[in-house]
Amino acid sequence: MRKGEKGILVAIVVIVLVFMGINTYRHSQVAEDKGIPFYTTASTELQNKGAELLRVYQCRNCHTLWGFRNPMQSVPSPALDGIGSIRDESWLYEYLSAADPQNILPTRLKAEYQMPSYAHLPEHERRTLAAYLASLKVEDWYLDEVKRSEQEKLTGESPPEDGHE
Ligand code: HEC
């Protein structure tokens, strides 16, 4: 092996080692990442029924769920991910059953963007929706962030960073 070739070989070995090092480092970063904070406690049956109702009533024209919403709409409404950690099932049922949801949750949005009343839905559908929404949980460490951005969207104000309300 000539001297120049040896130099190239050493350079290749060094580059390979550096890449292996970067990869190991990145994997250890991923392991420390807390992951996706949202999950559901619903049975498969409830998940299917709930998702079907959300689809039929086009809730995702306005709301994000599992990181997805209708990209053609731009209504500034709260995400439904993790909503079951903030509201319980009976609250959700009352909210969906209210003739005027803005009596329960005041809004600053224009009328066309506001949460519509679903009081006209059959009771079993409102119950299924409430049960499904209540099953949508968020890990504690993420909840503060969700609450903060939600309050910001609803009130237009940034709450204090320290989380005291
Ligand atoms: C026209 C847009 C729109 C549609 C469609 C819509 N929502 Fe909403 N929703 C909102 C807005 C905006 C709010 C926040 C309150 C307000 O401004 O009226 C809200 C609030 C909520 C909340 C309370 C969130 C919280 O912070 O407690 C729940 C739960 C909810 N919606 C569920 C649903 C479900 C389920 C459907 C479908 C059956 C649906 N929404 C359809 C716009 C919409």
UniProtKB/TrEMBL annotation:
Q: Name one Pfam family in it.
A: Cytochrom_C
| Source organism, top-level taxon | Bacteria
Which organism was this protein described from? Candidatus Tenderia electrophaga
Q: Which keywords are on file for this protein?
A: Heme, Iron, Membrane, Metal-binding, Transmembrane, Transmembrane helix
- Is Iron given among the entry's keywords? yes
In its UniProt entry, what is this protein called?
Answer: Cytochrome c domain-containing protein
Q: Which InterPro entries match?
A: Cyt_c-like_dom, Cyt_c-like_dom_sf
For this UniProt entry, the molecular function terms from Gene Ontology, in alphabetical order, are:
electron transfer activity; heme binding; metal ion binding
Sorted alphabetically, which PROSITE patterns does this protein's record hold?
Answer: CYTC (PS51007)
Q: Does the keyword Hydrolase apply?
A: no
Give the transmembrane region(s). Answer: 7-25
Domain Cytochrome c as annotated: residue spans: 45-137
